[in-house]
């Protein structure tokens, strides 16, 4: 029996071996390295110099880095509430048997597979002040549109809009699946009790969508905090640092200024922020009860 | 219940939303087939007549086909690796008993929390130590051994299969490999299809890692090549959109033919 068990063990280790190598070498080791490097000064050409917490002291007084963090938070706040509400509204509209519902669902999901680099360039052109589709359309109704991506007030909302455009439809799919999991009897019972549609939404639909809401906000937030591709091709962090999100600053510090130690410190900052936000969501959603209907 | 007026408003809202969803794709197609003159004389949302293939010819006449081939090779290898290694690992975690299983699985789940933005710098430095910068090895290695997220999804699916499936085969003396290939894998086709589609899309669209780890033409992929079109004086929108059209077309084709697998990726997360 034990011999057989041993053999089974070896099979299992063989099966998970390659993926375990990947997890250790390319996920765990990098986390260790990025933490260690945040304590060094290293420009790649000479040997790394241990500087203790110097990079963190520098970070504390680095106005540009905090500005980047602030821009990132604004970007997330522009993206997540809007795309979550839009996705939920779309799901509610499409969770019924109306003509063309399947095609409509497909059309809403199609932005999700777009190559972000390509769509960054497309939206860059839509936002072009003179020849872009948006300002041309505004011209038709007699409005002169701003120079979207060069205007400090508009650049960040503009790049955030691209993210909303890309992710709303796919998020809607999760809400649709969630809506279809809500037992219809609950709605029937509430109708007999004389509940209004608004009451039904707030008292039944939304609480029962809690697990879905948790999943989509956690994954979308983690994604939005790491925004990079569209900003790289649309604004290059500009105008005047207006779209200089933290991931973009990390990239620039490491691969344009070759300051790998400080870039690692910035990475630690991003890691900490994402962890904190995720933990806050776990607590927030954990406290609100979902009804166990099984 | 639904009045004609409400119905009209509903359809109008949905149609407007659908138009916004599709418009950027439309713009890619329209612009890719415009000459430079048509580009400056027509509205962006109108076609240039007659359509011109000059942009496509120009971009396909350069190094672009080579970068396209690189993207195809990268996507194929990453998807193959992900499917093979993820399936084996997920099978072991879901259906085999072995010492350390739960600890290892929690380790995997924990690493799902590590943002890719945080690992980019150390991965680059690891590849630099291994002298793998600007090589195929460096481009592929970090993502070819399967991702914790994929393993998590596949494990969920393996666990959802009835427990008695393997019993009869095991009594007949079948080993884990036979059980996996003869009994479980045929039942896993929907999950494997979904994992394949997700991996194809994310590999094809990937940008930051290829941008950092490759610099020469031998390993340059389409996304990096397209992003370079914006640099320099006098941005040629027609040429950029022609490149974009070539990059997007396979993804749209996948979407049209394998849509149900994409919808299933939502169900696979176990949220209903």
From TrEMBL, chain B:
This is Carbohydrate ABC transporter permease. The chain crosses the membrane at residues 9-33, 67-93, 105-127, 139-158, 239-258. It is found in: Cell membrane. The lineage of its organism: Bacteria, Bacillati, Actinomycetota, Actinomycetes, Streptosporangiales. The keyword Transmembrane helix applies. Pfam families: BPD_transp_1. Belongs to the binding-protein-dependent transport system permease family. It comes from the Bacteria. One of its GO terms (cellular component) is plasma membrane.
């Amino acid at each position: 029996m034990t011999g057989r068990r041993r053999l089974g063990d070896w099979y299992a280790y063989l099966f998970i071996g390659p993926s375990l190598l990947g997890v250790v070498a390319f996920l765990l080791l990098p986390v260790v390295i990025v933490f260690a490097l945040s304590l060094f000064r290293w420009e790649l050409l000479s040997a790394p110099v241990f500087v203790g917490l110097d990079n963190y002291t520098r970070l504390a007084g680095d106005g540009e880095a905090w500005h980047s963090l602030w821009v990132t938070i604004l970007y997330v706040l522009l993206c997540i509430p809007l795309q979550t509400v839009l996705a939920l509204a779309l799901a509610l509209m499409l969770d019924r048997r109306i003509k063309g519902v399947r095609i409509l669902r497909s059309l809403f999901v199609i932005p999700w597979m777009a190559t972000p680099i390509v769509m960054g360039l497309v939206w860059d052109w839509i936002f072009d002040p003179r020849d872009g589709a948006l300002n041309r359309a505004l011209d038709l109704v007699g409005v002169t549109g701003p120079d979207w991506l060069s205007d400090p007030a508009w650049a960040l909302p503009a790049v955030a809009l691209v993210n909303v455009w890309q992710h709303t439809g796919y998020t809607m799919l999760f809400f649709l699946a969630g809506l279809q999991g809500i037992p219809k009897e609950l709605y029937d019972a509430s109708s007999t009790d004389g509940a209004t549609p608004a009451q039904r939404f707030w008292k039944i639909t939304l609480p029962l969508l809690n697990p879905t809401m948790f999943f989509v906000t956690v994954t979308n937030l983690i994604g939005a905090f790491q925004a990079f591709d569209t900003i790289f091709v649309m604004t290059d962090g500009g105008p005047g640092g207006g779209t200089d999100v933290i991931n973009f600053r990390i990239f620039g510090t490491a691969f344009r200024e070759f300051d790998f130690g400080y870039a690692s410190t910035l990475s630690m900052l991003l890691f900490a922020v994402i962890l904190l936000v995720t933990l806050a969501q776990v607590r927030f959603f954990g406290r609100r009860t979902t009804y166990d209907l099984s | 219940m639904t009045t004609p007026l409400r119905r009209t408003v509903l359809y109008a809202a949905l149609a407007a939303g659908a138009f916004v969803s599709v418009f950027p794709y439309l713009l890619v197609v329209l612009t890719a087939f415009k000459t430079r003159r048509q580009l400056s004389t027509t509205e962006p949302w109108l076609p240039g007549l007659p359509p011109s293939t000059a942009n496509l010819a120009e971009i396909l006449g350069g190094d672009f086909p080579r970068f396209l081939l690189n993207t195809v090779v990268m996507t194929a290898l990453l998807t193959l690796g992900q499917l093979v290694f993820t399936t084996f690992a997920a099978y072991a975690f879901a259906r085999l008993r072995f010492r350390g299983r739960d600890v290892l699985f929690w380790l995997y789940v924990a690493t799902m929390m590590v943002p890719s933005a945080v690992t980019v710098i150390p991965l680059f430095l690891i590849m630099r130590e291994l002298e793998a910068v600007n090589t195929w090895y460096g481009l592929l290695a970090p993502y070819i051994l399967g991702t914790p997220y994929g393993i998590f999804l596949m494990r969920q699916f393996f666990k959802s299969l009835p427990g008695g499936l393997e019993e009869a085969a095991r009594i007949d003396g079948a080993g884990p490999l036979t059980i996996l290939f003869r009994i479980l894998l045929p039942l896993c086709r929907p999950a494997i299809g979904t994992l394949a589609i997700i991996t194809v899309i994310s590999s094809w669209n990937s940008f930051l890692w290829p941008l950092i780890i490759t610099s020469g033409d031998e390993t340059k992929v389409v996304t990096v090549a397209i992003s370079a079109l914006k640099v320099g004086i006098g941005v040629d929108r027609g040429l950029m959109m022609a490149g974009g059209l070539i990059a997007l077309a396979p993804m749209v084709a996948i979407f049209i033919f394998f849509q149900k697998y994409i919808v299933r990726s939502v169900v696979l997360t176990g949220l209903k």
